[in-house]
Amino acid sequence: MTAGIPVVAVFDIGKTNKKFLLFDRKYEVVYESNIQFEEQKDDDGEPCENLAELTAWMKGTMDDVLFDERFHVRALNFSAYGASFVHLDKRGIPATPLYSYLKDYPEDLLDEFYSKYGSQETIALQTASPPLGMLNSGLQLYWLKHRKPELFKKVKCCLHLPQYCSYVITNKSFSEMTSIGCHTALWNFRKKDYHTWVFQENLSKHFPPVTHTDSKLDIPLGKYKFLAGAGIHDTSAALLPYLMQMKEPFLLLSTDTWSITLNPFNEEPLSADELNKDCLTYISPQGRPVKAARLFLGNEHSHYEKKIARYFAKEARYHKAVKFDKTLVQKLLLENNTRKKFLPETMQVDGYLSYNKHKAVDLSLFSSYEEAYHQLNIDLVTMQAMAIETAIGASPVRKICISGSFCDHLIFIKLLASRFPGIEVYTASLSNVSALGAALVMHKSWNTDETGKLFELNLFAPERDIAMMQYELV
């Protein structure tokens, strides 16, 4: 066993894909496996995580790797999605299903909660958590206590999912700040303690002690010993590689179905205006506030791209073959035709824009798929720029790093660089970023090497003579 490659192991638990990865001293992936579990039904008959299969898979996977002579596991950590609690009974066994954050929250219970503890805006500002129902995982506890009281009586300990993953292997219970501070409505950011409502509902007794993100446990497992972490929220984990490599203030634009703009250099308290723009605050692995602005931009792109493809009789994903056309962009910006503009149809942007939601783009005005797709990107970039400007605030950010699926959307990136000519815009090719972040949390405990360069950055210069800064959507 000890003759194998020294590695740090990471369980990276996503909503769909569950991964297990081994990183060597240079943080290259030397082993990876992934699995998906079919959802089961909770006690309301609604879909939920298959907790039993997840737990069994983690234990079996850990046993297998410890006996694999190719590797020597020196450290272990866990990255997982948030807004999810595992409730343990007095025996340390899950007492409830792992309820999905996609469940509807009863409106009458929300009204009751806010009538007792303050308005939506007050609670949201104090906890840096927009009102999101079940996505405010603290309110899941309120729901469980008041709507399933007999079940709640069985609950001894409540663990955020990343910390439950750690518990599965270590049998140790902790709370941890990146999970507590992630739009849970539990943490009062100004007082740096659980919110008053948590104490008044007598819920704090169900939370184990708060530990630092980089805390380590010396864990014996059979005849082997290694250091294990307490687990980390996946969004905060994804930020860590950039914090370790970037030497100047930066903003991370994480793109996929959701576009999340993360600014670890804006520590101003969340304002009412920012709250109205769907901003929130995460906690960095170092325990500092991270201002974030969210847009459902990837979904909006997919929604409109399909409409354009249907209208012009193109195959799905035809947009990947469309090249950036500067002349076409200049023409569209000069026209500034309101009937050609792609106003938001699937995402809420009321905090940014006031517009007629019944006014649809007229695709017949475009001469080609290419023209329509360039206009779509002009409008998406304009929407994204609003979120970026909000997240930047008064912070000294002069670099934007784009990660995720939009790194392949060169039209979008070139237009974004032109929208912010005074800020350097980069793409970063970095896979398994949440798992890498969780591995890096453990760095000093097992790896004496320097982390070195973790990823490559590609700089995109702004296009000259493109007046993106002057363009307005409405």
Any overview of this molecule?
With 474 residues, the chain is α/β, with parallel strands linked by helices. It has 16 helices and 22 strands. It folds into two domains: 5-230, Nucleotidyltransferase, domain 5 (2-Layer Sandwich), CATH 3.30.420; 234-474, ATPase, nucleotide binding domain (Nucleotidyltransferase, domain 5, 2-Layer Sandwich), CATH 3.30.420. The chain has helices spanning 51-66, 107-117, 120-127, 137-147, 149-152, 161-170, 177-180, 196-200, 234-245, 272-276, 297-311, 326-335, 369-392, 410-419, 433-441, 443-446; strands at 5-13, 18-23, 29-35, 40-41, 47-48, 71-80, 85-88, 157-160, 175-176, 187-188, 193-194, 210-211, 216-221, 224-229, 232-233, 251-255, 259-263, 279-283, 289-295, 399-404, 424-428, 457-460. The strands form six sheets. Strands 1, 2, 3, 6, 13, 14 and 15 form a seven-stranded mixed β-sheet that branches. The chain has a seven-stranded mixed β-sheet with strand order 18-19-17-16-20-21-22. A two-stranded antiparallel ribbon has the order 4-5. Helix 14 links the parallel strand 20 and strand 21. Helix 9 crosses helix 15 (433-441) and helix 13 crosses helix 14 (410-419). It is globular.
CATH architecture of the largest domain: 2-Layer Sandwich
Strand content: 15-25%
Number of strands: 22
Tertiary shape: globular
Q: How many strands, what sense, and barrel or not for the largest sheet?
A: 7 strands, mixed
Poorly predicted runs are none
CATH topology category name of the largest domain = Nucleotidyltransferase, domain 5
Number of helices: 16
Q: Please state the structural category.
A: alpha/beta
User: Mind telling me the CATH superfamily name of the largest domain?
Assistant: ATPase, nucleotide binding domain
Q: Just give the CATH class of the largest domain.
A: Alpha Beta
Please, what is the average pLDDT?
Answer: 95
Number of domains: 2
- Radius of gyration, taken over Cα atoms and rounded to an integer in Å: 23 Å
- Distance N terminus to C terminus? 64 Å
Helix content: 25-40%
Family: Belongs to the FGGY kinase family.
Keywords: Kinase, Transferase
Domain Carbohydrate kinase FGGY C-terminal: 248-444
Domain Carbohydrate kinase FGGY N-terminal: 8-215
